[in-house]
Amino acid sequence: MPKRKGITVSRQIMDSQLLHPEATGELTGLLSELIVAGKIISAEVNMAGLADILGQSGKTNVQGEEVQKLDVFANQTIKRRMEQCGYICVMASEEEDGVIPVLDGYEGKYTVAFDPLDGSSNIDVNVSIGTIFSVHKRISSGAQGTAEDLLQKGSRQVAAGYIIYGSSTMMVYTTGDGVHGFTLDPSVGEFFLSHPDIKIPRTSMYYSVNESYTNYWFDAMRSYIDYVKEIDPDSGRPMSLRYIGSLVADFHRNLIKGGIFLYVRDKKSTDKPEGKLRLLYEAAPLAMVVEQAGGSAITDDGRRILDIEPVDLHQRVPLIIGSKKDVDMAAKFFLGKKY
User: Fold this and answer.
1) What are the DSSP calls for 265-298, one per residue?
2) Could you report the per-residue pLDDT of 47-84, keeping only the tens digit for each?
3) How far is CA 334 from CA 42, 254, 326, in A?
4) Is the peptide bond before 21 cis (omega within 30 degrees of 0)?
5) Of 18, 152, 284, 338, which one is least surrounded by beta carbons within 10 A?
6) Are residues 5 and 194 in contact, defined by beta-carbon separation less than 8 angstroms?
7) Which CATH architecture has domain 9-195?
């Protein structure tokens, strides 16, 4: 049905449920709980400079990274909303090592994996950050879910999206029926549809990459970046660099304006031979969003992100994601088909 600007996210989710007579309402309830968590985190982010919640907590996460105070708050907020919502059987967080069980008696039929606060190293300088989430149907039997329920291909996701905290707070999500964006009106505490049926431009003028790694890139990456910088008016080059250093912020800009984001393997990160970004918490959910918007997401050896079977909760992958024609062109360089 047509998406009307101004309707609430709750109404949108309910309208989508009506299109599926077999729906039980559990996915609707799950998404509603994530929305509440996003509102709570948004309020805390907006008050961070006044509430002594900026800076580092003194701890490191399972990835070996310094944990920010807001990371801890966001992680705890989502866990508390999810553990007794009754819609999930297990969850996983980018901040924690193993699976996170739900409270006994509250087991449901879905799973949720999340990055509670992507881009948190930028918190202290007021750069946009965000929460990324991925939802699967459980595949195990029994009450509590297991790692098996979480370790499913991205193509089996039933919902994915993110909430970005910036000049305004936006929720962007998909349940496999297009991508829609909702902006939070803080005066009434509700998300309203502001970006119906988002489509990423098929090609663009922008690329997003950390160019400080230039000397550590392999030849394919170096050749591709040289290509996008060449002057060729017929193909719209040179492309312009736009890089924030916060995945969710870079992705959101490219989703709306068009662009390609690359974080591939390099010679510097020898401790991360498969790349830096996490498959479950970052690459797979954003890949679902971008494909539903008409874009593409692959690895630097040409694998479709959504086809990768996870083997570990914190598996890393190289990521090339964005406008379809731009990703297709990048793939030619990485697969040795462009000379």
Assistant:
1) --SS-TT-TT-SEEIIIIIHHHHHHHHHTT-EEE
2) 766 555 444 444 555 555 555 688 889 999 999 999 99
3) 39, 21, 13
4) no
5) 18
6) yes
7) 2-Layer Sandwich (3.30)
Q: Are 25 and 10 in contact (CB under 8 A)?
A: no
Check: pTM over 0.90? Answer yes or no.
yes
Given phi > 0 = left and psi -120 to 50 = alpha, else beta, which region is 299? beta
The pLDDT value recorded for residue 3 is 63
Structure tokens at 226: 């040289």
CA angle 323, 329, 333 (to 5 degrees): 135
So where are the chain's domains? 9-195, 206-334
Tell me which amino acid residue 45 is: V
Tokens encoding 318: 């190289």
> Cα–Cα–Cα angle for 171, 122, 290, nearest 5°?
35
Copy the structure tokens of residue 173.
Answer: 């999500």
- The residue to which tokens 């994601």 are assigned: 321
Angle at 261 between CA 257 and CA 267, to 5 degrees: 165
Q: State the pairing for strand pair 66-68/56-60.
A: antiparallel
- Which residue do the tokens 């002057």 mark? 231
CA distance 217 to 221: 6
Query: From the DSSP assignment, how many helices (H) and strands (E) are in the chain?
Result: 8, 17
Alpha helices in 192-257 (DSSP H): 219-229, 247-257
Are residues 296 and 290 in contact, defined by beta-carbon separation less than 8 angstroms? Answer: yes
206-334: CATH topology: D-Maltodextrin-Binding Protein; domain 2 (3.40.190)
Task: Please answer whether residues 319 and 263 qualify as being in contact, where contact means their C-beta atoms are separated by less than 8 angstroms.
Answer: yes
CA pair distance 146, 89, nearest whole angstrom = 8
